Amino acid sequence: MSESQPTNWIHLNRRQRGIALAWFATIMGCGLILLLLQKMGFDFGHVLGPCGLKQRTGYTCPTCGMTTATLAFARGQWLLAWQIQPAAGFFCILLLLIALSGLWLAATGLLPRKLAQFYRELKWRYVLLCAGIIILAGWAVTLARAWTSMHQW
């Protein structure tokens, strides 16, 4: 292959590889901190408090169960996290994939050209819209579970 032909890979410079490694370290570090705090008996409910919407109306809020699901995910109980709050399980898996891709980028220094193009063309309003839809879908599942448990024969 001649030098004038583009490759399917973009070679990252040292700074870009450092940023990718920082993403990996930050995400995995947060997960480790959550795990260690749980092992030490830290009470997250004491810090965050109960859900105000649920206390006032009896209905769960769109993010009810997110903390519990995230803590379950940090303990390695991925299916339980998904069962508790599907949106939280999805976002935890997404963060894990971002962390692992950051490690891969830092280690190899290679970014697929198609992925770089995707990131350049990404519209953040669509990302936020998708995140909102995922949160609402997780809330719908939580509400459906609550409704069926209240109306069991």
Q: Topology of this structure?
A:
Elements: E1 9-11, H1 14-39, H2 44-48, H3 52-57, H4 66-74, H5 78-84, H6 86-108, E2 110-112, H7 113-121, H8 124-150
Antiparallel strand pairs: 1-2
Helix pairs in contact: 1-6, 4-5, 4-6, 5-6, 6-8
Give Rg in angstroms: 20 Å
Structural class computed from helices and strand pairing: mainly alpha
- From the N-terminal CA to the C-terminal CA, the straight-line distance is 70 Å
The spatial strand order of the largest sheet comes to 1-2
**How confident overall, as mean pLDDT?**
91
The low-confidence parts are none
What general outline do the C-alpha atoms trace?
globular
**Could you state the order of secondary-structure elements as H and E?**
EHHHHHHEHH
Biggest sheet architecture? 2 strands, antiparallel
Distinct helical segment count: 8
The count of DSSP E runs of length 2 or more, i.e. the number of strands, is 2
Kindly describe this structure:
The protein is mainly alpha-helical and 153 residues long. 73% of the residues lie in helices and 4% in strands. It contains 8 helices and 2 strands; from the N terminus they run E-H-H-H-H-H-H-E-H-H. It has helices at 14-39, 44-48, 52-57, 66-74, 78-84, 86-108, 113-121, 124-150, and strands at 9-11, 110-112. A two-stranded antiparallel sheet has the order 1-2. The chain is globular, with a radius of gyration of 20 Å. The mean pLDDT is 91.
